[in-house]
Amino acid sequence: MGVVTRGFVGRRDPAAANLPPGQYLTPDFPVLSAGPTPQISLEQWRFTLTDEAGTEHGWGWQEFLDLPSEQPMVDIHCVTKWSKLGTRWQGVSLDTLLGPVQTRAGYALVRSYGGYSSNLPLADLRGGKAWIAYRYDGADLPAEHGGPARLLVPHLYFWKSAKWVRGIELRTEDTPGFWETMGYHSYGDPWRDQRYAGD
Amino acid sequence: MTETSAPRPVHWLPARVADLREETSTTRTIVFDVPHWPGHVAGQHVDVRLTAEDGYQAERSYSIGGSPDGQRVELTIQRVPDGELSTYMVGEMRVGDEAELRGPVGGWFVWHPEESDPVLLVAGGSGLVPLMAMVRERARAGSAAPFSLLYSVRSPEVVLYADELAHRARDGDGLNISLLYSDSAPEGTARPVGRIRPDDLADTGLPQGSAARAYVCGPTAFVEAVAGLLADHGYDPSNVRTERFGPTGG
Fold first, then answer.
1. CATH topology of domain B119-244
2. Is A7 among the domain residues?
3. What residues make up the domain containing A172?
4. B248–A37 CB contact, under 8 Å
5. Which of A113, A137, B18, B98 is 20 to 30 A off residue B228, Cα-Cα?
6. Backbone phi, then psi, for B206, in 5-degree steps?
């Protein structure tokens, strides 16, 4: 064995035994944002899916609420090492949103109000793995947690679950998003410890 | 939001405690000697991994408080209740002890000494740590960029780097430092105690009419409140960079 830290024992939380590598449990819901929380009025809110040919599919706030919704309960894992288990959300499955969209794109670039972006393979948005969530723990999603609506794609590190989402562009090539251009991993699988570029 | 740095792999590196400084009753600065440390930019953070004798490991992320200094990496750690690493690092770690560090990490909440625009730093409590790295880097590099630090802190006993701040404030040199006490202040402090408020931003000493960049670090509610105050003062959101800093079980 390599380095040993003299006298360190650790907490050895049994509940943390099944977390992805390097993660610890928190009962809190920490807020991490690169800039100020954007204030977005529901009258102006709009979510668009744009396919690789540039064709837009868009929803206003009420149209979005009228779509069939789901209530996923999921574990979330932040690259800054905290994990939170059993978080409860309500939102629209990406399967529902992508249903009518004809595309041969392999990648998605998620864009947010405020300028944030993140990329992931389109396959990771399909198959009941991703939602546009607008309620958290039985209440409207607070702005600091991404309200009015955020992407929820809990099987990847949580920076992929872009807050304040305004649209998803379907692309034939992978385009790195905000953190992905600053040394963070392009895919970000917590179970493979894919935190930083090169992991 | 555009700022890029070339991605490169970051590896765990063995590190040894070279120096320790008690800052407050719950906060300690630990200086690690890290051979092969690739260097860092003020504002970045680092992952720390501790390994017990039986191989059990735990890791956390910490902001770097020191300016770039060869293979030295200086962290200021606040002990949080039940904190798995912080309890050990603040209470038990000694000079000569070993750990592993991985980084530096983060390419957004950073300040490069080549930048000459005015900078407003707004710290809440331990959120001072990455901002202090910027203050120190400005001095180390001999930068003339106008800097103003607003440091909101509960009481005089929990002021981090108190002597160094007093010293740097006296030096002037284009650096303004304002301590904003929220609960109790030393006798003779002109500003009434209280949370940061609009008039604290009215006279930061920065040149008027220039587009300053603001860096805000502290607990979530503090960051949200300050971001709102900055917007009211005409700061463009794209010039406001934020980072949360606070106990999250670490």
1. Rossmann fold (3.40.50)
2. no
3. 19-28+60-192
4. no
5. A137
6. -80, 150
Six-digit token string for A64: 């979005």
Residue A193 has a CB neighbour count (10 Å cut-off) of: 15
What whole-number distance in Å separates Cα of residue B95 and Cα of residue A124? 47
**pTM check: above 0.80:** yes
Cβ of B61 and A81 within 8 Å? Answer: yes
B224 and A37 within 8 Å at the Cβ level: the answer is yes
Separation CA B165–CA B159 (nearest Å): 9
Q: Examine residue A151 and state whether it is found in any structural domain, yes or no.
A: yes
Contacting residues of A for B46, CB less than 8 Å apart: none
Note whether residue A111 is domain-resident: yes
Q: Given this chain, do its domains B12-105 and B119-244 carry the same CATH topology?
A: no
CB contact under 8 A, B8 and A183: yes
A14 touches chain B (CB under 8 A): no
Question: pLDDT tens for residues A71-109?
Answer: 999 999 999 999 999 999 999 999 999 998 989 999 999
- Min Cα distance B164 → chain A (Å) is 28
Counted domains in chain A:
1
B chain contacts of residue A179, beta-carbon cutoff 8 Å: 108
Averaged over B148-165, what is the pLDDT?
96
Quick one: closest CA in A to B104, which residue? Answer: A183
* Range B12-105: architecture per CATH: Beta Barrel (2.40)
C-alpha triplet B111, B115, B117: angle, nearest 5°:
105
Question: Tens digits of per-residue pLDDT, B74-92?
Answer: 999 999 888 999 999 999 9
Looking at the DSSP bridge assignments, the partners of residue A88 are: A73
**Assigned domain for A4 exists:** no
